[in-house]
Amino acid sequence: MGDVMVLAIDCDLEAEVICAPPDVNSLFEFTTPLFSIGGFHFTRTVFLIFAAMAIVLGLLYFGLRRGQLVPSKFELSIESLVGFVRDDIAKGVIGPVHGMRYFPYLLSVFFFLLVGNLFKVTPLVNFPISSRMALSGFLAILTWVIFVFVGFSKNGFKHYFIDALWPKSVPLALRWLVGLIEVVSTFVLRPVTLAVRLFANMVAGHLMLTLLLVSGLLFVAGVGDIGLKAGLGIVWFAFGLAIWVFEFVVAVLQAYIFTLLSAVYIQTSLEPAH
């Protein structure tokens, strides 16, 4: 609702062909907290983060608690998603032995991002929590901490860091360059690209959906003032619905990609290339 109010206030239906706020940040920042406890402000974004956590706990609890021989459709769906993360990501990427050790983390990340990303296409919510860099960055740093810790504990400082910094399999003249690229890629760029990939996709989708759907509603609602120009609203709303279907796929895909790359990074720490 915050998005609609901002666009409605700033939109001149007679002079513009699409409604857009003067500052894109207004689509991602909600300055008025729902309530405050001391110095902590409980904003809409914070509420949605806790809501995503509660939904994930509910899905896993009610989907897995009975373990019936003939599960319901809901239980079968949850079991299928859990089995997919376990078999295709945890075991399939990391391996059958080590994969189960990191399965709880991968499962938690996948379900949390799946629910949080789908908030983007949820009516009356229309806000993916991963469109805030703080959340995407936190999850990326958490993955980074895990795979770096795994790398040092499994291989030791020499084999995990020194061998990457000075790869002996590379010609001597190129070792410093290849080593520098390897270290920067592993210890700096991995968490950055992991966070930015998720964040950027969610930002783009949220922006397109908000502008198209809200513009469509406002132009159609203003037909009495702008006449035939209200037809633009039908066009924008139709585009918005098409983008909605596409963004549903993107939301699921980004949860999968983040979880898959987390598993890949852990696997490469268990068995470094150098």
Write up what this structure looks like.
With about 270 residues, this protein is mostly helical. The chain has helices at about 1-10, 45-65, 75-95, 100-120, 135-165, 175-220, 225, 230-270, and strands spanning about 35, 40. The protein has a two-stranded antiparallel ribbon. The radius of gyration is 23 Å and the shape is globular. Mean pLDDT is about 85; it is low at about 1-10.
List unreliable stretches of 5+ residues.
1-9
Q: Determine the structural class based on helices, strands and strand pairing.
A: mainly alpha
Helix content: over 70%
How many distinct helices? 8
Secondary structure tally: strands = 2
Query: What would the principal axes of the Cα set say about the shape?
Result: globular
**Strand-residue proportion:** under 5%
What is the topology, as strand order, of the major beta sheet?
Answer: 1-2
How much is the radius of gyration in Å? 23 Å
Task: Kindly report how far apart the N and C termini lie.
Answer: 52 Å
What string, H for helix and E for strand, traces the elements in order? HEEHHHHHHH
Mean pLDDT: 84
Largest sheet: 2 strands, antiparallel
In short:
This protein is mainly alpha-helical and 274 residues long. Helices cover 72% and strands 2% of the residues.
